[in-house]
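[Archive record]
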Amino acid sequence: MAVQKLPIAKAINESLRTALENDPKVLIMGEDVGKLGGVFRVTDGLQKDFGEDRVIDTPLAESGIVGTAIGLALRGYRPVVEIQFDGFVFPAYDQIVTQLAKMHARALGKIKMPVVIRIPYGGGIGAVEHHSESPETLFAHVAGLKVVSPSNSADAYWMMQQAIQSDDPVIFFEPKRRYWDKGEVDKEAIPGPLHKAVVAREGTDLTLAAYGPMVKVCLEAAAAAEEEGKSLEVVDLRSMSPVDFDSVQTSVEKTRRLVVVHEAPVFLGTGAEIAARITERCFYHLEAPVLRVGGYHAPYPPARLEEEYLPGLDRVLDAVDRSLAY
């Protein structure tokens, strides 16, 4: 059956399974990815079916995990690394930034680095400290890394396939609070380019641009705005590095307004770069300044306060109203 309705977590599991079946050089490694199947069960059943040499439980040492993956890539493997939670990636940041991202350029193109680093990210699950971060901009800033995030099951399946097939390192951010959202996955579809943004909902009055967990919020905002006679277009960016500015520009030239939404702090976030680029490109089309909605420039709060921290429907609609008021 080519088309299935799967949660995002299961879609990633199916994609990893397909990759393991199709290429003996694909390996999965990380903390608890094997016997436990990962804390979110994304790798459930893979070690049982492919063995401990293909799906490898590692020590609790993120720097060592990524360093090992770099060595494996040098020997022709395609390792897929899981960082158990977003806030755990920082011990590996040096390996990612100074080694993984630079190796291709350092070798004048002779060395490829087909490494995928999976990172469940974002809040909304009531977790403790260091389990709800959104560090995507830290990696998008680093030349040599591709940075992507799916918002639905179909993209989760196909973008993972494309990430594993890439000869460049890919940081694959998985929106953990959307893991259980279901959507249709067509395993015989022909996917679009990995870094191509898509219009998730057509509209005429204003463009909402988002990625990962915030796409659903923007779609809900567009549905709520429609009841008040406002037509909002939702662009799912899908990729934070590179960013498909052309698709955003096309939408903004039609709607003449843009609000960028992400969970990460607004200060120096992905939205800042998009706002600057679109202002340059669409200066004579814009009827309002590009607005940004995101988290606050503060440490992620305790779980009881995270709903106050995370951008939700009301904050998105407030930005929409401010933009339309110009």
Notes: The chain has a mean pLDDT of 97. Residues 1 and 187 are 9 Å apart (CA to CA). The chain has twelve helices and 14 strands.
